[in-house]
Write a structure and sequence with these properties.
alpha+beta, 4-stranded antiparallel sheet, PSTPO5379-like, PSTPO5379-like fold, homodimer, 21% helix, globular, 2 domains
Chain lengths: 268, 268
């Protein structure tokens, strides 16, 4: 996810509800990293009711990669537990539409696609713990460099659920060992945002052969005296769903998250 | 849940797999508190596939009361993530069968009742954190007295999911303020076993009017200098399901839990 606003970006409201209103009105379609600071942002996955069962089971069995923040009732576009007036058909800056597992379209509004059997999922996102790490003065290189975080497909099997199975995807942040220890402590307090790391040190132990060639996002250097620290990543459910090829699946576009009315401190 | 073995109880194996084999063979139908020490025990709820969707959504939205440890595939009696050879039709010491929300039978084996559309859920249980509290030398009065923990229906609404809604049920343990602080620290590390308390102090603030008259379990004294500490309780999903009156629902009998092959230290 891109973590800096493009040059010349408009001045944007600092509170979540105003920012969402602007997004709903079609006046902002960009990345949300760093916006509405303090408010939880969420990954969005929309599936038909039939696939939603498998997905609910998958999330329950793989909660580090898929921490569920909210689930809509079938056909209901509201996410009632994340704000009083969230409409998941219009409140995400940009959506990706997958048909049979293939990216078919990118759009700013999915009102025309909405169906009575759609179920919307909001999943916790690493922006929450990255904010907490930065607040603790732990530097994050990809953010300093304005890059997307480096993500890797591992050899770790997710627990299968119905038609959904596949490998865990992780994000990697290089840190000094001292900061790695503090990062474990801090992120363990955010189970709703991937929680504690799933690994640190030797990438080969989790099946990553080329740390300088991430499967998603951008590479960053690991300096002498640093170790890579790996967290379960929200790309996992998207990759698993794409592999299963449902007729239709809609997600947020990378970095263009749903901004909720929940404050980071309310997660837990 | 009763926390002492009845006098004259047989000597029971200390490892989970041997204890389960004995239970499966019909040679033990009692309470499991304190048995197979170190191994996670689980609440069991079995529903039809149709109700399982609502229940999965309810658990996702109310994870403190309903921490999901495993979900079977429809019709599959195995709980593959909790042990290699768990058969949920025979491995619980005693089951309760509810029809239309009413207790209809208690039995030691549900092979005859099993259906192709049954889904079994295993949910985390307070035995896990009670063990951690005792290991930290925090006394638990109900255990010292050989009583069931005191449980109360609160005024706190669960997040509704489909046909399932209702109030949160909590368990209460009296502690010194110092031990309450340590109990918060310790139990916050067990999100898969109800996690940190949801309240401490004045029971009226969460709608409990008579602390000496619990809605479930047994009352215990709160001594001078102690405060009551409240945790989300696994009775919540059972109460919510009973209110919704599904055609059939099968659970473990109180205190007669599923003993898994997972060690407490693997939860988290």
């Amino acid at each position: 996810m891109i973590s800096t606003l493009p040059p010349g970006a408009p001045s944007l409201p600092a509170d979540a509800a105003s920012l969402r209103a602007m997004i709903r009105a079609g006046r902002y379609q960009g990345h949300t990293s760093g916006l509405a600071k303090g408010f939880v942002q969420a990954n969005v996955v929309i599936l038909t009711r039939d696939w939603a069962y498998d997905f609910l089971q998958f999330c329950a069995l793989n909660s580090k990669a898929c921490p569920v923040l909210d689930v809509s009732d079938p056909g209901d576009p509201r996410l009632r537990n994340l704000g009083s007036a969230i409409d998941v058909r219009s409140d995400v800056p940009r959506y990706r539409v997958y048909r049979d597992g293939q990216l078919a379209a990118e759009t700013e509004d999915i009102n025309a696609l909405w169906r009575d059997d759609f179920v919307a999922f909001a999943l916790g996102c690493s922006f929450t713990f990255e904010q907490a790490l930065q607040d603790a003065q732990i530097p994050l290189r990809h953010i300093a460099l304005g890059r997307n975080v480096a993500m890797y497909r591992t050899s770790i099997d997710n627990r299968p659920a119905g038609r959904l199975s596949g490998k865990l995807v992780v994000s990697m942040r290089p840190m000094t060992p001292g900061n790695a220890v503090r990062a474990v402590e801090i992120t363990s307090h955010y189970p709703a945002a991937h929680g504690a790391p799933i690994h640190l040190g030797d990438p080969a132990l989790i099946g990553i052969e080329a740390i300088d060639a991430p499967d998603y996002g951008d590479a960053v250097e690991i300096d002498a005296g640093e170790i890579p620290v790996f967290w379960a990543c929200g790309v996992t459910p998207q990759a698993v769903v794409a592999e299963a090829r449902p007729e239709i699946c809609i997600t947020h576009a990378p970095g263009c998250m749903l901004v909720t009315d929940i404050h980071h401190s309310q997660l837990g």
